[in-house]
Design a protein that fits this description.
Elements lengths: L1 H7 L3 H23 L6 H11 L3 H25 L7 H14 L1 H28 L5 H12 L3 H4 L8 H6 L1 H9 L1 H15 L1 H24 L5 H6 L11 H14 L11 H16 L4 H17 L5 H29 L3 H24 L1
Helix pairs in contact: 2-6, 2-12, 3-6, 4-5, 6-12, 10-16, 11-12, 11-15, 12-15, 12-17, 15-16, 15-17
């Protein structure tokens, strides 16, 4: 019975997500009360969603619909099994499934709370800083460092690799847009096969947001696409038609309130975290993920979604997030468990067995 109670406790990643959600929510309330009283919390949340183009909500809705379809299918399958109607048995089976799904659903609920609070705070910062952008400062430093603007140079004839990059344009674009799918797949892989890495992985991702908020507030920057190309596309800018269309679509989607969360790039920071923990999970994945990270990083410039300085800042942000996440996981294990490895092995073994049993019952 003591072992069962342990499995009902909040996991480390849930504690961190819940704590950060509280911090973000409290920060939002303080800012809203003292700096931006005219904007409602609902408006702030919707603004934050616009930054991410509502993709998070769309994926959540699709997942929820799929889950309902699966549960409904199982209910009908069990009810009509052997042409006998057995409502009581079906309901009991449905309850068993829901009990088995409690831990994953609890994590999803806490993750949703974290996402909501961070999006709301981001929406508030976007509203506050929309008239105080630092794009000119970033452009100035890029000109000093690189003698040009990388997001323009990459599509100009001055770039000796332009032909090569345009040849691999579909792969670069795919890598840029694949981040969310890769992050979800990686998270599921760690959840079922390496719970200790899963904890550090989730915490590191959350910490990148925490560490980036000061930069988004102090150095609010629109993407080159929204700030520069929306006003002036020079004749030397010879991007492929597909790239021009993507940039145009982004500008149309974000024209009401362009995101200010460009510096640093979460695309690159999160991709670095994926690369690090996949390598830690299995070293052989490094070759493929490094190639993907390079293409994704190029894609942020290639599609004019980031400045090169955004990418440079992403590396220390990701490195610090990973370091802190690993430190937190180690300290937590030493604090609570005399033998953390055996505890985590027992945890994943028990939960995997329960999920396997549910799947077996579902398909038989």
């Amino acid at each position: 019975m003591r072992e069962t109670n342990n499995f009902k406790k909040l996991s480390l990643e849930e504690i961190v997500l819940f704590t950060l959600a509280f911090v973000f929510a409290l920060t939002t309330l303080i800012f809203a009360l003292f700096l931006n009283k005219q904007i409602s919390l609902k408006e702030l949340f919707l603004t934050g969603l616009k930054v991410f183009q509502n993709k998070t909500v769309l994926w959540g809705a699709e997942f929820s619909f799929l889950l309902l379809v699966i549960i409904f299918y199982w209910f009908i399958k069990t009810t009509l099994k052997n042409q006998e109607i057995n409502i009581k048995k079906s309901l009991q089976g449905l309850i068993r499934i829901l009990e088995g799904m409690f831990l994953p659903l609890r994590f999803v609920a806490i993750l949703a709370l974290f996402t909501t609070s961070s999006l709301t705070l981001l929406g508030l910062i976007t509203n506050i800083k929309k008239g105080h952008l630092k794009n000119e400062l970033i452009l100035h430093w890029e000109k000093i460092i690189f003698k040009t603007y990388p997001f323009l140079w990459i599509h100009s004839q001055a770039n000796p690799l332009k032909t090569l990059l345009d040849t691999f344009s579909p792969l670069i674009i795919f890598s840029f847009f694949s981040l969310a799918v890769v992050m979800i797949f990686t998270g599921l892989l760690f959840y079922f096969l390496k719970r200790r890495i899963f904890s550090a992985y989730i915490i590191a991702i959350a910490l990148t947001i925490l560490l980036s908020f000061p930069f988004w507030y102090l150095v609010p920057v629109n993407s080159p696409n929204n700030f520069y190309l929306s006003k002036n596309i020079p004749p030397s800018y010879k991007a492929p038609q597909k790239v021009i269309q993507i940039e145009k679509d982004f500008r149309n989607q974000q024209k009401e309130l362009p995101p200010i969360s460009t510096f640093p790039s979460m695309h690159v920071a999160w991709a670095i975290i994926v690369l690090y923990y996949l390598k830690k999970f299995k070293k052989e994945t490094a070759i493929l993920t490094i190639f993907w990270l390079i293409l994704l990083s190029i894609g942020t410039i290639y599609l004019a979604q980031h400045y090169f300085l955004d990418i440079l800042l992403s590396f220390p942000i990701a490195a610090l997030s990973i370091t802190l996440a690993n430190f937190i996981v180690k300290k937590y294990e030493r604090l609570l468990f005399s033998d953390p490895a055996s505890y985590l092995d027992l945890y994943i073994q028990k939960e995997t067995q329960e999920i396997y049993k549910l799947l077996k019952d579902f398909f038989t």
